[in-house]
Design a protein that fits this description.
FAD/NAD(P)-binding domain, Enolase-like, domain 1, binds flavin-adenine dinucleotide, 3 domains, 10 helices, alpha/beta, about 400 residues
Length: about 400
């Protein structure tokens, strides 16, 4: 057995996947694995925070692996003690509580945090992000004592926060800067459909709207919009994007751009240090979904264990699967038509189902599926493979059953 120490900073979903993949390797590359987590809990399913907020999941059910799993695999966990400094010269990391850990290899899996708006009033009580267990507990506590909430951001996080708080009995106003909801995943028709359904369920949704300031003396009391309108509120949820946690890497002198720069083996500019998940950047791509992080974890486990010498991570077109308030949504590749694309569109008005397929030079470049998403992975496969769809074109909207059946 090797006598090497691997230290991992951050214990989110992607770090946990890396630990699982490492534990499956036939050769154990490290005699000691230490995980240093800033959060007080063992890795949990962050995606399920939305379900907990909506009252559909218990916080205990979010835990990914029990303590016994870490014992069995000889993994040491140190929780609630964030790392404050990485010293690449001595190969040591230092925690807030004064603990020092030496490493042979270091993995940064520090994820990201809610992006700040840069507005006056953002530090008032009652202004909360939606990222971790603590935020979610805070939102639940506030919802039990108050009635009005404003959510800033109409991406999937904002929508899930808004729907969760509505389920808890709050009157929720959602503000979105863009002209339609989920503008990264949906086209204008899909976004408008979503707005109509969620408005009918009781959300107040304002698109093309931006906040100017958050007002209050100690607690937030109102949101002022750029057109001077005031919206009274007891709670503001900031869900307008994420910022990768790069501060440790920057201070250690590692190359960073929008996130921590890594090569296709997930190695940073220091050969002993790797990064993966939402804190890393490959080429010019950063990540905000868990699937690319999982793919990176598979590759990094092979790189660290030496089980596949040429293991590389190549960013792929990643489909987005979402369920907003029970409505399934699937999108992949290009979502909005342009001058070079043709569209195949179908819509069932009575059941709120909608599909747009984008085609360029007889190849699928994008798919937006709303309400019925069963065929999403099939479309994604053909987008990723650049399949020539000439033979199927007339049946394309009806999915694989009508395209792949032999004549
Ligand atoms: C409410 C919600 C719903 C979501 N829904 C979806 C979804 O439906 N589909 C999807 O694909 N993705 C979804 N996501 C995104 C998904 O959760 C992330 O892509 C994924 O968790 C990223 O994993 P990660 O391990 O890179 O980072 P994280 O999960 O953020 O983990 C990073 C960890 O590192 C810790 N850390 C940071 N700095 C330090 C330090 N200095 N010292 C020690 N520890 C540190 C952090 O506290 C954190 O625990 C959702 C996210 C949220 C918040």
């Amino acid at each position: 057995m090797a006598t090497h120490t691997l230290v991992i900073i951050g214990h989110g979903m992607v770090a946990q996947r890396l630990l699982e993949r490492l534990s499956e390797q036939t050769v154990r590359p490290y005699s000691r694995i230490v995980v240093l987590s800033g959060e007080p809990a063992v890795a949990y399913n962050r995606i399920q925070l939305s379900a907990w907020l909506a009252g559909d999941a218990d916080p205990d059910s979010l835990t990914l692996k029990p303590a016994a799993w870490f014992l069995k695999h000889g993994i040491l966990l140190r929780q609630g003690d964030p790392v404050v400094r990485v010293d690449p010269n001595t190969r040591q990391v230092h925690t807030e509580q004064g603990h020092t850990e030496a490493y042979d290899h270091l993995v940064l899996a520090t994820g990201s945090r809610s992006a700040r708006l840069g507005l006056d009033g953002e530090d008032l009580d009652g202004v909360v992000g939606f990222r971790d267990l603590r935020d979610t507990q805070k939102l639940i506590d506030i919802s039990q004592r108050n009635r009005r909430a404003v959510v800033i951001g109409g991406g999937f996080l904002g929508l899930e926060a808004a729907e969760g708080l509505r389920h808890r009995g709050m009157a929720v106003t959602l503000l979105h800067r863009s002209s339609h909801l989920l503008n990264r995943q949906l086209d204008t028709v899909g976004g408008a459909l979503l707005k109509e359904i969620l408005s009918a369920r009781g959300l107040t949704i304002q698109t093309d709207t931006a906040p100017r300031a958050l007002l209050g003396s100690q607690r937030v009391r109102a949101v002022q919009l750029t057109d001077e309108t005031l919206i009274s509120t007891d709670l503001v949820v900031v869900a307008a994007g994420i910022t990768p946690n790069t501060e440790l890497a920057q201070a250690a002198g590692l190359a960073c751009d929008r996130a921590i720069c890594v090569d296709h083996r997930l190695q940073t500019s220091d050969p002993s240090i790797y990064a993966l998940g939402e804190c890393c950047q490959v080429d010019d791509q950063t990540f905000g979904l868990v699937d690319p992080g999982y793919q990176q974890a598979n590759v990094l486990a092979q790189v660290l264990s030496g089980s596949l010498l040429d293991a590389t991570y190549i960013p792929a077109i990643v489909p987005t699967r979402l369920k907003i308030s029970g409505i399934p949504i699937y999108s992949c590749g290009q979502t909005r038509p342009d001058d070079a694309t043709e569209s195949v569109v179908w819509q069932d008005y009575s059941s709120n189902r909608y599909c747009r397929l984008l085609i360029r030079h007889q190849r699928l470049t994008g798919a937006v599926l709303f309400g019925e998403t069963r065929d999403g992975p099939w479309y994604a496969e053909h987008i990723q493979q650049g399949t020539d769809i000439t033979d199927w074109r007339t049946n394309l909207a009806f999915g694989p059953a009508y395209c792949e059946t032999p004549a």
